[in-house]
Amino acid sequence: MTRRILPLVVMALVSAGVGAQGPKSIPPQQRGELYKRNRPVIERLVAKTVESSKAPNNPVTRAKTYYDLLLDFNKELRDARSAGDDARVKELSGHLVTLLDRGLGPTLKKAHEEMGGPERTEDENYQKVRDDLIAQVDALLGVVDDPGAKKSLDDARTGLKQRVKSKPKE
Amino acid sequence: MNCSTVRNRLLALADPAAVPALVTAHFEQCPACQGWHRLLVQVDAAVAAIPVPASDGRAKQNVLSQFRDEVSVNGKPVRTAAPKPAIKPAAPVTPAPERVPVGDRLARFWPAGVAAAVLLVGIVLWVSMARKGNEEQPMAAVPDPLLEKVIQAKVGLDTATTPPARLKVLDQLAADIHEQAQALALVTPGEMASLAGMYKDVVEGALVEQARLLGADERRTVLPRYIQKLFETEELARQKAADAPVGSDGALQDIARSAGASRTELAKLMRGA
């Protein structure tokens, strides 16, 4: 009896093992190719992360770091669209959504909260950062087709316009 | 079963009188084998009945001396009369419990054999197709894992509210860059300087600076694990550099140096220096 059941048990275990396998790892050669292609964006992201780490108490400076990132994404998305590389457009659009919704959005919110505080010395700086970011978001709205990315850009644009307080007139 | 098989099987039996059922069935159709079996039983009984001739023991001693060094203590072999074996009467042919041959027993499991063969073929096909799929997968369809990780690091750092939380993000980012360097060391030496530069910026330019913002108590509780991880990175990078091609070896040494320098700085901060 045991000998008859054993092959079935072994087959079931093998099937379970195969089914439980995680995502396939990318071979080093392919990782190298991916890195060559994404190197400028990755280097910029790391540089801007380091820059943000040096301004832990200054959300305006941290928000400013997104300007160059949005510029890079704008360029990369245009290139990918020109090349008809839909998979890359989709990948970059997904990352753009993450940057806007989970990075820039909360950073702007924090900046806005601090702008509403008693110290308003960074108002002018903030206005410039805001205008630059709005320009980049507008440029990206003309590039992306992905509905999710468009919504994130719209939200970011709305946030940039609403969250800022006008500088008090003297 | 043919006659030759039947006779071989009878010769292999310990007691030729106990005949398996399959052989008995053959006997019913084959008088020749039946007679042959009868003769075999008689020979078996006769051999057992042959009396052992009287001997002075010398012959036995000679035989035994071939197997052991000492035959007896006093050198005189004890002569014992061989017991006369009783003549075994020819037992009637009785069917023994059926002994199924190994081949027949294995043949019963043919469904399991078929299943195993199908499984094996399936695994081989699956592995080869997966390998082919990996090779043919266009680069554009594969998302870059490092790009995703640095995106996560960026948003993670901007939303972290405390120095320990920022340290955690920076430590993970440094680990991701080092892992990428380990993966690419043998295939793209030209890209290694970029990775080494980023690693240095993250650990020396950000992680150590972030550690300075910790309070004295926090330094003692938080920093040891980062010191340990930097030590491990330093060791791994040095080991990899030893086997890496020109171009990658220098970059890996740079990573090791950055990890070592940052580890030293963190240790100083922990001691309150």
Question: How would you briefly describe this protein structure?
Answer:
Helix content of chain A is 79%, strand content 0%. Chain A contains six helices and no strands. In chain B, strands 1-2 form a two-stranded parallel sheet.
**Global Rg of chain A:** 23 Å
Structural class determined from secondary elements of chain A = mainly alpha
Order of helices and strands of chain B: HEHHHEHHHHHHH
Overall pLDDT score of chain A: 83
The termini of chain B sit apart by: 94 Å
| Radius of gyration of chain B, taken over Cα atoms and rounded to an integer in Å | 42 Å
Instruction: Give the total of beta strands of chain A.
Output: 0
General form of chain B = elongated
Main sheet overview of chain A: none
Beta percentage of chain A is under 5%
Instruction: Outline the biggest β-sheet of chain B.
Output: 2 strands, parallel
Give the total of beta strands of chain B: 2
Amino-to-carboxy terminus distance of chain A: 94 Å
Q: What's the helix count of chain B?
A: 11
Adjacency order of strands in the biggest sheet of chain B: 1-2
Task: Please estimate the helix content of chain B.
Answer: 55-70%
Low-confidence stretches of chain A: none
User: What is the succession of H and E elements of chain A?
Assistant: HHHHHH
